[in-house]
Amino acid sequence: MKASQFFISTLKEAPADAEVVSHKLMMRAGMIKRLGAGIYNYMPMGLRVIRKVEAIIREEMNRAGAVELLMPVVQPAELWQETGRFQAYGPELMRVKDRHERDFVIQPTSEEVITDIARQELRSYKQLPKNFFHIQTKFRDERRPRFGVMRGREFTMKDAYSFDRDKEGALKSYQVMYDAYCRIFDRFGLQYRAVAADTGAIGGDASHEFQVIADTGEDALVYCPTSDYAANIELAEALSLLPQRAAPTQPMAKTPTPGKSTCADVAALLGLPLQQTVKSLVLATDEKNEAGDIVKSTVWLLLVRGDHDLNEVKAGKVAGLKAGWRFATVAEIEEHFGCKPGYLGPIKTIKPVQVIADRTVANMADFVCGANEADFHITGVNWGRDLPEPDVVADIRNVVVGDPSPDGKGSLAIQRGIEVGHVFYLGTKYSKAMSANYLDETGKPQPMEMGCYGIGVTRILGAAIEQNHDERGIIWPAAIAPFATVLCPIGYDRSAEVKAAADQLHDELLAAGVDVLLDDRGERPGAMFADWELVGVPLRVVISDRALKEGLLEVQGRRDAEASKVPVAEVVAQVKARLSV
Amino acid sequence: MKASQFFISTLKEAPADAEVVSHKLMMRAGMIKRLGAGIYNYMPMGLRVIRKVEAIIREEMNRAGAVELLMPVVQPAELWQETGRFQAYGPELMRVKDRHERDFVIQPTSEEVITDIARQELRSYKQLPKNFFHIQTKFRDERRPRFGVMRGREFTMKDAYSFDRDKEGALKSYQVMYDAYCRIFDRFGLQYRAVAADTGAIGGDASHEFQVIADTGEDALVYCPTSDYAANIELAEALSLLPQRAAPTQPMAKTPTPGKSTCADVAALLGLPLQQTVKSLVLATDEKNEAGDIVKSTVWLLLVRGDHDLNEVKAGKVAGLKAGWRFATVAEIEEHFGCKPGYLGPIKTIKPVQVIADRTVANMADFVCGANEADFHITGVNWGRDLPEPDVVADIRNVVVGDPSPDGKGSLAIQRGIEVGHVFYLGTKYSKAMSANYLDETGKPQPMEMGCYGIGVTRILGAAIEQNHDERGIIWPAAIAPFATVLCPIGYDRSAEVKAAADQLHDELLAAGVDVLLDDRGERPGAMFADWELVGVPLRVVISDRALKEGLLEVQGRRDAEASKVPVAEVVAQVKARLSV
């Protein structure tokens, strides 16, 4: 393609509302154009990337035996009412009424519609397994859309849904998708990690997030460099750092710690390691009657080591907290502990509380905790001697770098990542709610076992840029670059030789299957090079009179420090080799 | 592809709500599945057709120099308020509020958004002309969605928008699109006609509808078989059928016509040709004051020959009716004519009315019209002698078959058609409303001249089927068939020879670029053939032990009366030749 037939619109400065680098660079490179909060026009340069991302996804989904269909953007509310999600989804679900005042949603995802299709179309065990996918526009009315395409409201997603006879089959379908996702992300040319993720109410261990590695990512990915253990921070298991509890060596003693309400301050004041302190967090649970009124509240004291952080997802899995918890109010805290937050501890509470100790805390000896008296802590505290054993011992903290890997094969490391894909075993949640049954060999109806598998198509663009950029702009992997190669002739409109060489190379590269753009705009070299470095085209070929006289062209990869001179006749082969076309 | 990797779901009977043949066949062939009124899931078989239609459109749009982008489905109301369409569009425009109670629309079309992009991106005459297009989901909240994808609510449309410096440039861009559309519809393999269409308030002659010819079409297409004149019925010009008015030969006479209120009945009663009668239609226009109250109404009598029909679009172009008209009420009619409808005429009205005569009526002599007295008509009426000349003479009727072509090159014929594309010169309607200006050579801002160009992607499917089907099912043109060729092995699971031959032919055809499906489901021949005739695959190759023994396979086109036996080695070449691959 020639630039004159395309639309190129680059900016020197990013708009002020662009907060992250991918957003800034996509705006500057003319890939997206803001239409409203979290709603973007995909400009020609950006759309080319989307189409390449979609094509790779589509090919690998087909290869994995999934069948493409297309479900509507606007979906009747009735189906969403069958699963209860019309009410439960919250304000992110864009609801709309038609001219007859009937309720619809603008789809954020399509479990209901695909399950409706499946219950009509998949009647017999002979038709299973089946996996349907579509690539469609989604809408989520985010409270605070930001970061460009990373957290937009309207976006493109590939979502797939598998239907199986039983859990065993569903887990096979899950594995097929997991493998397909690995191929997809491999082909994107992105560094990524598939990490185990929480399965919530479904249970089981079949949920993986596909995370693009980037320092700017919102998610923490835990992995073991010496094994294949990988999980997101919500799920990654924290073992006890103390294999067993040591015997007490200190007497319990109340110590003044005026104004020192954090573990770090207390440790510093007392000259103790932070690892000797225990952090207190107070949660509450409510029992409600049938009318929804709270009839009883229970207060829970959660203890983690001073250098550790509470993991709220893990807390929610502790018996007694599974039905939902909240942080306790200051009034509840003062009522139970007789003390304001900052000096709380498990000893001598006014009213009884349920004590949940993290695995490490449960094995600590001679530890420091709040005295339940303002400006005082207690040192030399020991389980059994100074207070009863905790009511519950559980993994309730985030892992930290250096923790032992749960598989026993090394120490944990942590990276930042951007979630761009998710494979999830759904079980019978939707099929039971919507009576999506098949008939087994005996003619008996059985609920189909489902899985769902998403890839955020437009989000891939942002994640790829967060991972691959420098001070000059984007650095696209070749497979998803808007153009794989750009030809930059110097003096295209002045030199017949340059024009002829550029046109010929353009045609030869096209014929060789290289997605090439010839910049025939007649820009000055500096501006032209800056544009393509900003846009992030992986390979640039400069055609100039000077080099042509020696029979050479200059080929430079986007990450190369300098260009290499290549004989004209070898350029096509070298470009193909470098792009692996 | 093999059928076992795909999803095939055919029905013996169409659902009761499917009214037209294309809707019935798409449902039966498993191409679409109803989700709600006018909202369909595109099942795998239907999506394949959509993708082929889209690919052809995309290729030809690119070839014509248009640049693809993607504008959002959910669009902020602000832009639609700038052009006044947020209010003016009526209930077909699906309006929605986000969580912050801000107004949005679900796009039915994208003039506002593209003009917003253009006013930001196209600043200089040097950037013009430019043509942007996208292929995107649209929503129109039709009052009565029906006919499947022909009048759905959610549908896919390709819409393109051109921007030019001046009208001359815009008309050039228009012609480029017109030509591209011809290539697109040629490639679809559909019989179509581009007909001139009304331009409404814009004026000018640059509006063409691309109509797929089908007896079941809603639109009447007027054309001259011996010239290139073609227009839709709203626009097609009706010349006077009487070159000049004959001299009166009869006296005017009131004649009893009891109960005969139609021209046909009157002509039959009086033994006169219908062409001797004149039909009266009464319209009214209202003048309003600034508060919107009607301050004055005017009554208009429109006269067309008894065998002709009023053309409401043409009536709306008559001076005095341009600002909008309505049919008169019975009360207004009785007040002005002293008579109920059915016996009205231009002679002796009680109150004065404005008389608009069709061109033919204006040249009639000795004609018959109502007497403005119930159960009476007048014969032998002559302009000038019995009543004043009409206030206005204008083309206000639909043309009929056999009318002289306006270009003087023959007689008009009429076909039925389904509108699937439209090219339209917009002028500066949107650019002026939204201040979309470019700077000319002198630095002066000028409004861009625009055109818009739509193709109903999903509607193409319905139109293609209305045109191409028989009692057994759909007959797709090869270019847009879900599969171009189907291989039907008899006993794929029983005969190793059949399986080997089918597998090999499948691979060879794929390698030759033929979009082939191998039906490996193991269905009985009758059911298998019926499925593919219903789905409408253009070419079928039957592989059977019996024919293989003679070294032959049976090749049959969907329209062929019978199969021809082809030597195995020649099948690939013959399939390619028949599909023009």
Automatic annotation (TrEMBL), chains A, B:
Principal cellular location given in the protein's record: cytoplasm
Aminoacyl-transfer RNA synthetases class-II family profile domain mapped to chain residues: 33-477
Gene3D superfamilies, per database record: Anticodon-binding domain, Bira Bifunctional Protein, Domain 2, YbaK/aminoacyl-tRNA synthetase-associated domain
InterPro entries: aa-tRNA-synt_IIb (IPR002314), aa-tRNA-synth_II (IPR006195), aa-tRNA-synth_II/BPL/LPL (IPR045864), Anticodon-bd (IPR004154), Anticodon-bd_dom_sf (IPR036621), Pro-tRNA-ligase_IIa (IPR002316), Pro-tRNA-synth_IIa_bac-type (IPR004500), Pro-tRNA-Synthase_IIa_type1 (IPR023717)
Catalytic activity: tRNA(Pro) + L-proline + ATP = L-prolyl-tRNA(Pro) + AMP + diphosphate
Location relative to the cell: Cytoplasm
Database matches in CDD domains: ProRS-INS, ProRS_anticodon_short, ProRS_core_prok
Enzyme class: ligase
PROSITE patterns, per the entry: AA_TRNA_LIGASE_II (PS50862)
Keyword Metal-binding included in the entry's annotation: no
EC identifiers of the protein: 6.1.1.15
Entries under Pfam families matching the protein: HGTP_anticodon (PF03129), tRNA-synt_2b (PF00587), tRNA_edit (PF04073)
MF terms (GO), sorted A to Z: proline-tRNA ligase activity
Keyword Cytoplasm attached: yes
PANTHER family for the chain: MITOCHONDRIAL RIBOSOME PROTEIN L39/PROLYL-TRNA LIGASE FAMILY MEMBER, PROLINE--TRNA LIGASE
Chain's role: Catalyzes the attachment of proline to tRNA(Pro) in a two-step reaction: proline is first activated by ATP to form Pro-AMP and then transferred to the acceptor end of tRNA(Pro). As ProRS can inadvertently accommodate and process non-cognate amino acids such as alanine and cysteine, to avoid such errors it has two additional distinct editing activities against alanine. One activity is designated as 'pretransfer' editing and involves the tRNA(Pro)-independent hydrolysis of activated Ala-AMP.
Subunit structure and binding partners: Homodimer.
HAMAP family on file: Pro_tRNA_synth_type1
Protein name per the record: Proline--tRNA ligase
Organism taxonomic ancestry: Bacteria, Pseudomonadati, Pseudomonadota, Betaproteobacteria, Burkholderiales
